[in-house]
Amino acid sequence: MRQRKVPLRKCVACQQMMAKKELIRVVKTPDDEILIDLTGKKSGRGAYLCGKLSCFKLAKKSRALDRALKHSVGDQIYDQLEQDFIRVEDEFLAAKEESDDE
Ligand SMILES: [Zn+2]
């Protein structure tokens, strides 16, 4: 069986290369809003994080999102994203399991 090529992306926090579906995308929209994009389809500049809260915390500490998105991300926005991250984590993991099933 031939293996399909999996697109890889780098986690901005721990710098690990991972399959795209293992990562959560954070996007800066054209309106300069910073959001978690579970669909991976929103337009704007994206940054990827492992679907792990520990990686989000690392990104917050090192301000990795500021660099990846080339935009200053305020503490408030990091706090908001962290809450969103916790909220979407289960959904993300569930979706991942489903797609592993194909
Ligand atoms: Zn990571």
From TrEMBL:
It comes from the Bacteria. SUPFAM superfamilies: YlxR-like (SSF64376). Residues 9-83 form the YlxR domain. The lineage of its organism: Bacteria, Bacillati, Bacillota, Bacilli, Bacillales. It comes from Paenibacillus residui. CDD domains: YlxR. This is RNase P modulator RnpM.
